[in-house]
Amino acid sequence: MDYSSIPWSDWNEQHVSAWSKTIGIKPEHIQKLEKDEVTGPVLLTVTKSYLKELDFGGGQIQLLLSKRDELIQLDKSKTNKKKSKEEAKHEIVSSSDDITPEQNFSTCDILESAVYLPQSKFRTFNDNDEHFSYIKHAVLLPETGIDNLITPCHEYKSLENACKLEPRKLKIKFANEVIRFACACMNMRANGTIHFGVMDKTKTSYKHGEIIGFPIEDKEVFEEALDYIEHCFPTQHSDARKCIKPPKFIKVIDRDSQPQNWIVEVDVVPIVNVVRKKMYSARIPKFNEKANKVEYEQKAYYQRVGPNTTRITEDELVSFIQALKDIDQKRECEENQNPIQANVKEDLGRKLLVLLTHGKKYMDKTLRYIIVSNRFDQENLQNIKFLAHMNIFCVFDFDPDSKSSGLCHNYQEHHAVNLHFLRDYDHRENTAELVKKLQLFDRTSWIFCNGRNDYIGDECPCDAKTWIKNKKKLLKRAISVICNEILPKRSFAVLFILTSDFEQPLVDTFHEFYAEMSGHEDIVIISESRENYKKWSNLAQVSCSTDVLEQISIVGMQMSHVDATIQSIQLTSVQATRHLPVSNNGLCFLKPVDEDSMLSLEVVRVDQCDETNVNFMEQEQIQKIERYFYQGGKIDWLNMWLADRNQCGEIIKRDAYAEINKMLEDLEQTDSLKRSIENINIYHQPGSGGSTVARQILWNWRKKVRCAVVKQLYQAATVCEHAVQLWNYEEVDKNSCLPVLLLLEDCNVNYQDDLRRELSNAVTTMKISSLKLCFIILCCKRSLDPERMCKTLPLRTVAVTHKLSPTEKKLFSKKAEALKPKFEAEFILTLVLMSKEFEQSYVTDCVKKCVKEIDHSSLQTQLIKFVALLNSHIEDSYLSVSHCEAFLGLGIHFDKSDQMAECPESSWADEVRHQTFENSLSEQARFFFIQLKSSETHIFSVRIIHNLIAKEILKQLSSYQSQSEIAMSLLKDKVLFDHRFGREEFRKFIRDLFIKRTKKSKGDPNDSWFSPLIEHVSETEDLEKAIDLLKEAYTRFDEDAFVAQQLARLLYENKCFEEAEIWAKRAKSRLPQHTYILDTLGQVYKKWFYGKHDAINQKDHIQPEDVTDIIDTALKGIITFRESEKCPQSQTVCLNNSYFGEVDIGCRLLELLSYVDIFSTSEGKRKLMNYLLTDYIPKEVEKTWQKFHGLLKGMKDSIRNALECISEDLARFQNYSSEDEEEFDEGEPETVNNPRKWLLRKSAVYAKLFISCDIADIGASDTNTVTPLMRQMKSFQLGGGNVTTILYLLSDKKKQRAGEKLEEIISLFPANLKRDLDQTELINFIFCQIALSCASPGSGKILAIEELQDLSRQFCSEKRTALPDTTYLLLSLLFWPEDPRSNIATNVIKTLHRYSEIKSAASRKGRIFTHFLLGKARGLNKIVHKSTIEKFCKGTLSERRLKWKGGEVWTNPDVVKVLKRVTGYTDSGNLFVRVSDQSNIRVIPLFNASLPSSNENVTFYLGFSLHGVVAFDIKVAE
What we know:
Elements: H1 13-23, H2 27-35, H3 40-45, H4 48-53, H5 58-78, H6 85-98, H7 107-112, E1 133-135, E2 153-157, H8 167-188, E3 192-196, E4 214-215, H9 220-225, H10 229-232, H11 237-243, E5 248-253, E6 261-268, H12 272-275, E7 281-282, E8 285-288, E9 293-296, E10 300-305, E11 308-311, H13 314-322, H14 324-337, H15 348-357, E12 368-373, H16 378-381, E13 392-397, H17 402-405, H18 407-411, E14 417-421, H19 431-438, E15 444-448, H20 464-470, H21 472-486, E16 492-498, H22 504-516, E17 523-527, H23 530-540, H24 546-551, E18 553-555, H25 559-567, E19 579-581, E20 587-589, H26 592-597, E21 601-604, H27 619-630, H28 637-644, H29 655-668, E22 677-684, H30 690-701, E23 706-710, H31 716-727, E24 740-745, H32 749-765, E25 775-782, H33 786-790, E26 797-800, H34 806-819, H35 829-835, H36 840-851, H37 859-873, E27 879-880, H38 881-888, H39 896-899, H40 908-920, H41 923-928, E28 929-933, E29 940-944, H42 947-957, H43 963-971, H44 974-978, H45 983-995, H46 1012-1021, H47 1023-1036, H48 1041-1053, H49 1057-1070, H50 1075-1096, H51 1108-1126, ...
Parallel strand pairs: 1-5, 2-3, 12-13, 12-16, 13-15, 14-15, 16-17, 17-18, 22-25, 22-26, 23-24, 24-25, 34-36
Antiparallel strand pairs: 3-6, 4-6, 5-6, 7-10, 8-9, 10-11, 19-20, 21-23, 27-29, 28-29, 30-31, 30-35, 32-33, 32-35, 33-34, 35-36
Helix pairs in contact: 1-2, 5-6, 21-22, 29-30, 31-32, 34-35, 36-42, 37-42, 37-43, 43-47, 46-47, 47-48, 48-49, 48-50, 49-50, 50-51, 50-52, 51-52, 52-56, 52-58, 56-58, 58-59, 61-63, 63-64, 64-65, 65-66
């Protein structure tokens, strides 16, 4: 990857990896850097300790850091920043080892300034703060003279060389400097501190006042040095001892410093009562190297002159002594004044509110909070009620007992939480999967950072050193994921609550948040104890200066005061009560923790939003909520709550509201109830207000029934569990519970069916009357043709379109006029469009006015086009504001001092960012865009206000830039694709733009062959442009196999077969074992073969050599389809389309062979049959078709085998569509629409190819003269070739016609069935007998069940296990025990269960196909085909389907009259039928949830399938 042309500050992980490779870093280390997401800016901050954590060796560390520093220096030289060699050298040292992200350096700061070193505070004078520390390379203020006598003066001594002296010499050097400085301070009556280890005026590369420190082996050396006081002040040593304080040893914090460095400081405090009227002289000690002993200088007087200590000369001495009286008086005066100086008290309450709310007047749900805490004592646990009403995203808890007796235990009394450890965030899946797995936006994630004492797993607490070794890296990863991948910047704040003593890991957490959040912004610290805070600030200053720490810290405020202060501004009341309606027309309390436990539902309570303190809400905030809705955003419960209280305008109810309301009222009437679960469907055009209608229904019914919105991230079984919990919450009598109204929004059909089935089974299990209404599923779906969708279930479906009734027109027009003075035009455009019924002419005019003067070259216009392209073709698509800012180049940076500026009215930083983005948009962008905010993640995004507007924008701008050009620009935009935040959603939308197809079943107007964009470009622009787009998408999405597959499909549909083959093979090379990809390659050959086949058919004469190439193409297709059939993945597909492809090619190829001249005559056809069925090879084709002989001779069996496989799949499953397969479905339309009909037709085609013309009209009288092949082919032709086609004949509404055809098939079989039939034919014969007994019970050709049982016993004696699954279905039907003596059924059903497990994965995709049910009659008449039951169900297809799914079919009197209820029992979650004292048969309940949870006697209807025997309508026996 070329990184040289890109500024290193813009490098991504791949650029860093490429650079690392060129400088010689080992590959395994490069992989670690890439895995840890080391980008260019991160490379700047890399330290030795970090590289050691990654297990880099010393040499590799030195190489990387030195080359990195060379890179920085090279960049600086390009910017012409002149620095001395010493400065440059020093900067390298700093950047290599000591610059951390916590020092608030940005890349620009480092490159554009000279060496920047942070300022450091002095230790508090004469204070014994044992927690105080200095940061290496921080700078103290320059040495000072005397300002006043109480404020200490300062003097620095580096001891850079002296610290290396032997102890005796070091002791003398230290005493020398201390005595001189102390004598001067005592004479000047001035406080002072002398600092050792701080750079004084020196010519080295260090700055004056820079903190370096030095290692100390023995502190006693410095303490004993003050013993020289007696020698240096012979007569005044007592005063000197009182004024010169013992040395203080202060740690110098440097993450990479080994060994520990120290600063030694000595305070001098000349108290006036000690020094009054005295003049001090000292003998300064020195070490004589020659004499090897200590000597003392002549006694001298010292003074402070500016920042220096100098001798008092004899000329100055007299005047100095004369001035002492005045100095003593001044000292005494200042000593007396200093203690009583009043400390300025901070307004901690206001400071706390500003920090937590970003300056708002109240705390709402728009800001998420991350809490970092350690151990809470019991008193403080009583003062954290404010946490219960904060929007807490996660808690980093360092208390191992928090779950059992700490903060977590206390919080769980109010809310449910998910308990996690740091390792749970060390994910390698995509972010969306992590969020889903950890349920991060549903419940607070409680992260135990140092294990749990109550946890029996492997997560024990550890000491600080072990934690740093084992868990610090996991903490870093967790914080990085949360800050960079999950939560957007400025959407959250981090609150550190320091309630007890803490250790280094808690401080490390601060460092990591500071680094990932690029500074202290949005970090708040609360510490009740000032001592704790001192220790904290001393350790935390590695990242952040103590001045800034004080700005973001609340210190000394009692937790009870913190609690009361925060509660006073929370928008939701602490005493909020939550209520649900109950069956006795009263209310019950809903505990918040119970509500949280139903995490798959958004419960709409009776008192929803009543906890809101409307007094806090300003009119501007209320207007913002209202404006968001009228601009096109989804309606909020708060919006409706405010409308009910006349705080905002009334919300229009469309006519559909009254229709649905009437349906619900009808369902309330007992005499109209038929089902325990009812469906009401709303199909609505986008932007027509359908979802608003649905939510208005829930809002206005919340006091009559229990209401909730389903979160479809959760499986139907989970939703069912929570829905049942809501249904019977605080209810005594389950038979009188109020119904639950569940809103499902834009779900797929399978999900809706699964939920209905789960709910139905749950109702059955609880022994609730089937006539008791328990659940109403209100399904709200978008559709481009809602009126057509209504026809499927007219009594329970409502369509909401853009067309308004006269009443609605008046309401919308009136509303639009009322809002015009209140809002700007762009904020009510959606409402105005609604009032105009989205008339195309109005939409056209509206867009035309906006784009009239648009700047086509601007980034803002390009952004409009990108969003319009997405919104036109991809439902629910959007572009995150973060992506928009990156695209527009809005790198918004806040200075530290600016961020702390308090804005009393609103969040200053939020407003600046929002305003910057708004101001960057053109007038047209502000008009077209609506900014949305996710209710779950609070991520801001933009989309066009309506997809009709988006389509019109593209249409009107097409003359300047076509859709293909816009799409190509989008694909090539590096900034958008490299932007990390929201990357997965963005890439998914763009990928869908090129490969996602439309489906009628989802409400789209048609089933498309390609994505709408590709279809548009290929049809209205140019095929080559569509091809180029897919090629570019293939590259952009890392050579995505499915993009290559779509390109191959586009090419073969447009007869570009050579190139289609290349791209299909390219897709195969990426996914060599993917059944859909291989199927596409097979389709290429199939279409190619069809083209060649049609062309050759135009010729009058066809020679063998003319078709060689065509045969080659056909056989390539067949071979590829067979590869697809053998893929492991194909086992999970209900209906493998490759079998269809193989049959299609095979049949047409055999047909082609019959057209070749040598095979075209009657004699030629016999020759062709001999060629295909025997070893015979005609001379005319011997050489020409040499490489094809083997495959061609196997065609008869291979096609039959494919037909059998299709038959088995069709016999096994009743549902062939799958949401996962929709983008890759390569089957022909007829394959999807009616596969059984296709099988019947293709079986006839296949048979015809092998039936000679002279036996085409074979009859029953000739059965003994016909060869087995002729009989088999004739049977195939009539539909008797396999089980599926035989049973499909029963779908004929005219049973007599079906019976006649079955009789004709039966007449083909010979008299001696046991001797003359092979295994497959015998199975087909018996199934024909069973089918005939269902179609025409009185037919004379039906054998008695005993005869059929006798015929089938040979299957029981087969020792081999290669029997078809249909054999076991046959045996279970014939031998279902009518008396206890039969054990054949028991054995075969067990075998059937065992073999069906091979297809168990596929059963999740489809639905088990039940062919027959057990009736009350005896003999063959006990076998009741499913079609018999279906004829009792009246209504449309959808209504009949609903009766099956809802269980209503089992209450039909005709069904009850025909079917037999079987008695069984449940044991440990399994269902059995007892057939004897020693034997039982396991029955598969079609849905496990329908089984009673306890061991019970049950009754049910029995069905027969290829999976075994199945149970319907399970009920606990009375």
